[in-house]
Amino acid sequence: DTISAGVTIGWAMEAYERGLLSKEDVDGVDLRFGNIEATAEALKKMAYREGKLGKLLADGSREASRRLGKDSDRFAIHVKGLELPAYDVRGIKGMALAIAVSYRGACHLTAGVYGTELVGSWWKFSNVDRLSFENKGFEVKLHEDLMQLYDTLGACKFSRHMFFLEGFPEMVYNATGFEMTHSQLLTIGERAYNIARAFNAREGFNRKDDTLPWRVLYEPIPKGVSEGSHVSPRELEHMLDEYYQARGWSMEGLPTKVKLISLDLDEIAEDVGV
Description:
Aldehyde Ferredoxin Oxidoreductase Protein, subunit A, domain 2; globular
């Protein structure tokens, strides 16, 4: 995957430039940031678990930083072991929340909040401030439900700016004969998202796992239009509270029996609901 591989190699380059990885540790590869030839060599080694470098990087930045230690986890840019996409969520705080709570880690396709945040208005939202941490919970929840609906229907998420939600009832009717409202369709997305979250809950995931990389929490953006911005631990906790409330979950981030039963997920409610 271009995202995970790129971020993992970026982690290795930073570790090398900081002197945390020696020339011997990286099989003699000149791992300075921006070295294209070194990137290609590291990628090959990762794919084949070749040499010390390949074995270190093959399982991603989380595992690599655990093996190396030396506080290298502070620049391992992942959530739940999945690396972040290219944009810096320190300057898009709604998206920061979205990747923190995503059930599969830092996935940019679980919720397309970056669109709302960067454009400033979209669908049910207007005057969105990307640098604010207020009122992000419902925004993220609605985006997640919509993206789950796209997956359920087999629709391309990148088409959402062409026909968005408006065309779905007609398409579903033409394909299946079922007449469904926008609200009913979004409930399908909500149900799918709760199933995924219930799976994670069963495996032991909870609020402690809905977090962000150390750099996002503690290092402000050094320059540019978002200079000085970051998502502080206090801001993240505030957004998590808002989000869990919007979802109808416990404050530990666990789906409740009441919520699951309301979505006709009675069997799952008995298994994992709180």
